Amino acid sequence: MLTILRDPGKGTLDAGGSGMLCVENNDQSAEVQFGLMVSAELTPADFTPWNAFPWFIDRAPSDDEIIEASPTIVGLLELLPDLEVVMLQGGEAQEAWRVALEAQPAIRRRRLITLETYHPSIQALRTADPNERQRRVQHRLDTWNEAGEILRG
User: Residue 114 gets which letter from DSSP?
Assistant: First the structure.
């Protein structure tokens, strides 16, 4: 499985972080991601994490930056011949996937299962409606569990 998020967080920086995109980083998104992975009965070996904009910028990437970064997704797909599932976590990831598909329509021939859910950050849960917040939390959990079922197939 390939999981695509928005952009690397501070936990990926060499100074004070692991220097890598990893569920074992010391940040809230990595912690949530780790919990979702465990819930789905998956391990870090079951998926490759990536970002819509794979360079640290500490903000949401612009549309132009998403377009600029799309070749990295296309190139990564070429390195994952056994890929079955692509999980798009958040709006930027979903947009990056759309851009990658437009740039390389041959990706569609791979018949990858694409799952969409919310980003694992607390920002994805910001809403005044507690029921909506809980729905988003549950959606993330359900999506990861669906991915686990597919991969264990």
Answer: E
Q: Which helix (H) or strand (E) holds 63?
A: helix 63-78
Number of helices followed by number of strands (H, E) in the chain: 4, 4
55 near 85, Cβ under 8 Å?
A: no
CA distance linking residue 104 with residue 118, whole number of Å? 25
Sorted by where each begins, the domain ranges of the chain are 2-152
Please state which of the four CATH numbers 3.30.1330.60, 3.10.110.10, 3.30.565.10, 3.40.470.10 is assigned to the domain occupying 2-152.
3.40.470.10
Tokens of 10: 């501070």
> Alpha-carbon distance 116 to 106, whole Å?
20
Helix (H, G, I), strand (E, B) or coil at 100: helix
Burial (0-12, 13-18, 19+ Cβ within 10 Å), 28: middle
| pTM of the model as a whole | 0.93
pLDDT digits (tens, 9 = 90+) for 90-127: 999 999 999 999 999 999 999 999 999 999 999 999 99
